[in-house]
Specification:
168 residues, two-stranded antiparallel ribbon, globular
């Protein structure tokens, strides 16, 4: 596989090695070799007071749902994945604190789902947005909320509320 020569030796180097990334090199596998973009209308999501629009994401040490480690060097997270990234102003305005343990609740068509005991992490993210790792927050993604054509779960736009954890 291109870019994986001497993998066993290179993976043991301090800091690892860069994986092949054609996009970084502006290589696009299209007929004309150029990137192609589409514009799609987005549905408006009206958040109620105290609600956030949550997206799920992967950490550095993860491939799809396979987790290889508890560190995310991209975002400075060490030894844990049950975190919720929030804008520092949102943390302040909602009476939360850096490092506080909170519970997340998703809201979809009158249905609520909960994920408990996540750590608040200040991060440069747009206001009223939240980011979490998956699969830890898959429980919050409503099964009936999916993309029209691909039918993939709406894991990038889940309406949630955040409350201090009641579990000690």
């Amino acid at each position: 596989m291109p870019g994986f020569a001497d993998y066993n030796q290179r993976v043991r180097l301090p800091g690892g090695f860069y994986l092949p990334n054609p996009i970084r090199n502006r290589e696009f596998k299209t007929a004309d070799g150029r990137a192609h973009f589409t514009v799609n209308e987005m549905a408006r999501i009206d958040l109620k007071p105290g609600q956030f629009l949550m997206m799920t994401m992967r950490s550095h040490d993860q491939f799809n749902t396979t987790i290889y480690g508890l560190d995310d060097r991209y975002r400075g997270i060490r030894n844990g994945r049950r975190v919720v990234f929030l804008n520092p102003e949102d943390i302040r305005r909602n009476g939360l604190q850096d490092g506080q343990i909170v519970d997340l609740t998703s809201h979809f068509e009158g249905e609520e789902r909960r994920a408990r005991r996540f750590v608040v992490v200040p991060y440069s993210i747009p206001r009223r947005c939240a980011a979490t790792y998956f699969p830890e927050t898959n429980v919050l993604v409503p099964v009936r909320n999916f993309a029209d054509k691909s039918h993939t779960p709406a894991s990038k736009s889940v309406v949630i509320s955040i409350r201090p954890s009641a579990v000690t």
